[in-house]
Amino acid sequence: MQQGDSMLSLRPGGGRGGSRRFAPRFTLSSSSDLTNGGDAPSFAVKGSGGLLNDRPSALVQGNGSQQPKPVPSPTRQTVEKPKPQPQPQEVAPPTTTSLNTVELSRKTNSLLEEYFNVRLLDEALQCIEELKTPSYHPELVKEAISLGLEKNPPCVEPVAKLLEHLVSKNVLTPKDLRNGCLLYGSMLDDIGIDLPKAPNNFGEILGSLVMAKASDSELVKEILMKMGDEWFKKAVLEAVMRSVSESLLTTEAVEVEACRGLV
């Protein structure tokens, strides 16, 4: 032991014959002399529960590790799926039954017969509008031509005037007129057998429609392509050429030549 240091040893229960079962040894040491104005001595306590350099012993503190707190799992939110909304069902338009077609044909023939008797264009137009069947208009055109040419004498001019009037009043569309004429032209090979003058009369009606600008030479060409009998085709084209002015023939020279190439 160096000079200036002091050691105090305490042995409780001392004596030779004393018990040492519960005799911890305490050692106090000072590293400096208080009389020299030094710092306060630090004591080392040997034994359980002591202080070491003014800090608690590791035995008192424990291991210093903390168990991590359990993180609560997020609660799962139940998302309700949107229920499918019922889709509105489309209502199919009523189809024309055979009974309706028969009824339309009967009413159409009735109003056409009335027209051929009285020759009143506006009255015929009103009756057609009252039918309210635009999809039937091509059939109406075909029936007007067919009934008119079956008359004796044939009603060529009344048929042409009726069709021109209906187109000018937008009751018939150019497509209605075209399809109706094509329907009649496709049957002309058979009709011409019973009515030999029908091809010529039909050509005059077509010529009047071309002159009124309700149709054109392109329609004449399409009709000729529908026909098979060469004599009937020639009769139709010659009647158209006689009914159309020279100036119009010159204007539509290309279409006219195309028609001539089909006969």
From TrEMBL:
Keyword set, alphabetical order: Initiation factor, Protein biosynthesis, Translation regulation
Region (Disordered): 1-102
SMART domains named among the record's database cross-references: MA3
Any one Gene Ontology BP term: regulation of translation
Low complexity composition-biased segments: 88-97
Domain MI: 103-225
PANTHER family per UniProt: EUKARYOTIC TRANSLATION INITIATION FACTOR 4 GAMMA, EUKARYOTIC TRANSLATION INITIATION FACTOR ISOFORM 4G-2
Entry protein name: Initiation factor eIF-4 gamma, MA3
Organism: Arabidopsis thaliana
